[in-house]
Design brief:
Distance between the termini: 176 Å
Pfam families: R3H (PF01424)
Helix content: 55-70%
Strand content: 5-15%
Organism: Holothuria leucospilota
GO molecular function, one term: nucleic acid binding
Protein name: Sperm-associated antigen 7
Oligomer: single chain
Strand order of the largest sheet: 1-3-2
Order of helices and strands: HHEHEEHHHHHHH
Length: about 240
């Protein structure tokens, strides 16, 4: 009997241990996570396909220059930006709060102006015709201010005669012009070029002449001092 009971118990499956239960739960979590990832990839792929279709229709439609998308999460905005770049268009995000941010795609040949972008950033609508009218008004106001400044500024008084005419007989008409034409500086500033010197002697010859003059002057002085009565004669 004991042997029979023992064989029956040994043939039965053992109850799962704690480790086995934890492993089973971990597998379930991983399977669920993979399912969520697959669903998320599918949603993003479907969203990208829809965006690509809309952008393609927009690019081929010559009557449209802007394409606005509804507010979406950051990850979906990145998909729109990527599709726009691939299509050769320009895209900008607008909206202060995260849940309000949306994207407008612009054709590159119709790039937005700074005024238009600033209007969208302020949450305002943009009317091209109204913008042209405002631009013309600003230009007219600027022109009117310029004319007003010209009217208020003192007029320039021209002299009755040219002061150069007063000295024309003295300096002539071409003296200053001729002087200005000679723009060649000396070879060494502060010294006169050798070709302009009147004294053509070398430095050594000049020094010898100076020494000779000093020597002659000293000899003349000594001769005068040696003559008797020269002082009385001078007085």
């Amino acid at each position: 009997m004991a042997d029979l009971l023992g064989s029956i118990l040994s043939s039965m499956e053992k109850p799962p241990s704690v480790d086995d239960k934890e492993k089973k739960r971990e597998k379930e979590r991983k399977r669920h996570l993979e399912k969520l990832k697959a669903e998320d990839r599918k949603r993003k792929d479907d969203f990208r396909s829809k965006v690509e279709k809309k952008v393609s229709e927009f690019i081929n439609d010559t009557s449209r220059t802007r394409l606005k998308f509804r507010p979406v999460d950051k990850i979906y905005r990145s998909i729109i930006h990527d599709v726009a770049e691939v299509a050769g268009a320009t895209s900008f995000s607008f909206g202060e709060r995260e849940e309000e941010r949306y994207i407008i795609i612009f054709k590159k040949e119709y790039a937005p102006t700074d005024e238009e972008l600033n209007a969208y950033r302020r949450g305002e609508t943009w009317d091209p015709e109204e913008a042209r009218v405002l631009a013309k008004q600003k230009a007219d106001e600027k022109e009117e201010m310029r004319k007003q400044e010209e009217r208020t500024q003192p007029s320039k008084v021209a002299p009755a005669t040219d002061y150069m005419d007063k000295y024309k007989k003295i300096v002539g008409d071409e003296s200053a012009v001729d002087g200005a034409r000679n723009l060649t500086p000396n070879k060494q500033f502060g010294f006169v070029p050798s070709e302009n010197k009147k004294d053509k002697r070398s430095v050594e010859e000049t020094m010898n002449a100076i020494r000779a003059k000093k020597k002659q002057k000293t000899a003349d002085t000594e001769t005068t001092d040696s003559v008797p009565g020269s002082s009385l004669a001078d007085s």
